[in-house]
Specification:
Blueprint: H1 3-22, E1 29-33, E2 39-44, H2 47-50, H3 57-65, E3 75-80, H4 84-92, E4 97-102, H5 110-115, E5 119-122, H6 126-138, H7 140-147
Helix pairs in contact: 6-7
């Protein structure tokens, strides 16, 4: 995947992460793009806002995309390496590529994708890393709740 396009698509996910933070939530954003580059859905982590533990950013973007006959050849773009829950969503529905903003603050399931034919583009984006580091420093209990850590 072209790095310029990956960064352009990541900007959509970053805007979603910032929207979530402004709402008092966890700053993780995602977007689902079609093979032709069409934005199918976008969303952000809404666990706090909706009091819904399943409303992760990738889930929100996936739901916003709506029902498609097939999700093959789509790209999930996320500001943070997906947790196992969201990694399962990618695999369950055959999403072919995942663009990851950063995996420094949380190393989720993106290595697992490669073992199962999902293309991974890891951008190591400094804006994504800074956004998460600042949030984790200010909200360690909420962060640990989000990732299922004690």
């Amino acid at each position: 995947m072209d790095q310029a396009q990956a960064h352009e698509w990541l900007a959509t996910a970053v805007a979603e992460a910032r929207a979530g933070l402004a709402e008092g939530g966890i700053p993780i954003g995602a977007a689902l793009y079609g093979a032709d580059g069409t934005l199918l859905g976008r969303g952000h982590n809404r666990r706090v806002q909706d009091d819904d533990p399943s409303m992760h950013a990738e889930t929100s973007a996936f739901r916003a995309a709506g029902r498609l006959r097939s999700y093959r050849d789509t790209t999930m773009v996320t500001t943070l390496s997906p947790c196992w829950y969201c990694s399962g969503l990618v695999r369950q529905f055959g999403i072919s590529r995942v663009v990851v903003g950063e995996a420094t603050t949380f190393h989720g399931g993106h290595d697992w994708f490669g073992e199962h034919g999902v293309e991974v583009v890891l951008l190591d984006d400094p804006e994504c890393t800074t956004l998460m580091r600042e949030f984790i420093e200010k909200n360690p209990a909420l962060w640990n709740e989000d990732i299922g850590s004690d």
